[in-house]
Amino acid sequence: MGFVVTYGYWGYQLWLQFDNPIYPFYDGYFQLLAQRDGPATMIRFLADTWRDAILRPMAMAAPNSSVYIEIAAPDFRFALALGLGFLALISTRKASRAPGWLPTLALFALVFLSFIPWMRTTGNGRYFMPYLILIGPCALR
Fold it and tell me: Which residue among 15, 31, 79, 86 sits deepest, i.e. has the most Cβ atoms within 10 Å of its Cβ?
């Protein structure tokens, strides 16, 4: 009920404008249901190939392009977290007995598995903000 009260009107307005109540997510699915010529597709930040999608954390660290946000700002957190996560996996024998290892592993899994739908839908940093915030504690842990 709370979702309907808080999001209902906004979702309705998005449906009227873009034929998609959760625009810009899953535009391809809603395009099948569209009454008009189809919703606007937001492809600016989408990866062109699977290789680009997999290497997106490295591209986010590049200072010369706006890969996932509108401004050109390097973001080293994901590249750092990938490297540190790899090192943590190498040392799992000792770390698996350490207190707090399981919640840390769950947080890493949540952040990196959420990367997949984000890259499939928009690739825009503003729609990935909760995970962009969580990657800092992941890298520190």
Answer: 79
Rg (CA), the chain: 18
- Residue 33 confidence (pLDDT): 53
Distance CA(13)–CA(80), nearest Å, equals: 40
Distances (CA, A) of 17 to 14, 35, 37, 40, 127: 5, 11, 12, 9, 19
Structure-block tokens of residue 69: 């946000």
Contact between 107 and 134 under an 8 Å Cβ cutoff? The reply is: yes
Using alpha carbons, list the distances in angstroms from residue 110 to 13, 40, 87, 107, 136.
31, 29, 18, 5, 14
Does residue 93 surpass a pLDDT of 70?
no
Residue in the block written with tokens 């906004």: 10
Mean pLDDT value of segment 76-90 = 80
pLDDT at residue 95 greater than cutoff 70: no
Q: Nearest 10 degrees: CA dihedral of 96, 102, 108, 114?
A: 140
